[in-house]
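Please complete every field before forwarding. Incomplete forms are returned to the sender.

SECTION A: IDENTIFIERS
Entry label: holo-271
Bound molecule: S-adenosylmethionine
Molecule representation: SMILES string

SECTION B: INPUTS
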Amino acid sequence: MFLVFACHAPPNCSLGPTPLAIVGEVGPQSAPFVALCYALDVGKRNNPYARADSRTRAARAQGYPARSVFKLKEVDAKCHLLAPGQRVLDLGAAPGSWTRFAARTVGPSGKVVAIDLRETTIEEAPNITVLRGNAFHVHPEISEAAPYDVVMSDMAPNTSGTKLEDQSKSFRLFCGAVRMGARLGKLGSHFVGKLFMSDDFEEARELVRTHYDKCRVIRPKSTRTGSSELFLVGLSLKLQLEESDDAGAPGDVGDANGDDSPENHRESEES
Ligand SMILES: C[S@@+](CC[C@H](N)C(=O)[O-])C[C@H]1O[C@@H](n2cnc3c(N)ncnc32)[C@H](O)[C@@H]1O
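SECTION C: PREDICTED COMPLEX
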């Protein structure tokens, strides 16, 4: 006698798409299949990044691909970064919520240049330029649109599962983003960047203070419980970097291997 076991596999599971169906002969040998199916299903239900929670649904209802928009909205409400007519550089833009919010705020007279290693869901528009690639490589479109009024970075590394390594990569992405802000922002421009909390926090804050009049630290309410991320805001750029200065390209942090599986972007996926 044959039986079909059905369960839900995670979208990136090598065993197959959702739902996963396995045909097997009933008997003691089918126990591992049942256990596997159960584990996959429970795993999905327990993984907060695999579920569309109320914030994700609310974001989608407002036309944003991810819940991360609420973080930028909160930072913007507190720090008044974005305004009509501005030029904005969005580093680590996929899937595109920050880009869309910024484009809506700066309006038709403004401009948002967005870049990510991954493809964004945002379509090009007269006030949006979408680039794919490592933010720390040379992209003429980025320098052509400079100087910017706001440089924002929601960049996050592919999470490795090793906390120290992820924190160190996040710190390097953050520092690289600050330096890009100081190189491509106009005097008086603003910066916001994501950082995974670590022992490097003070150094990161010092870097922001070196270049900006004021530094604010914000952990948005919409950040998921258990996430170590926070945002550092630099208000009013006072010390620019020259074009020739090292933009702080942080070596191998940008993982251009195209692996955009949800597992590899656990922190970043819905953040
Ligand atoms: C949290 S997600 C960004 C979410 C986005 N702000 C939104 O609202 O849709 C972080 C992104 O950083 C990108 N990223 C990481 N390192 C990068 C790099 N060196 N250059 C460009 N993008 C990078 C990842 O590919 C990932 O899509």
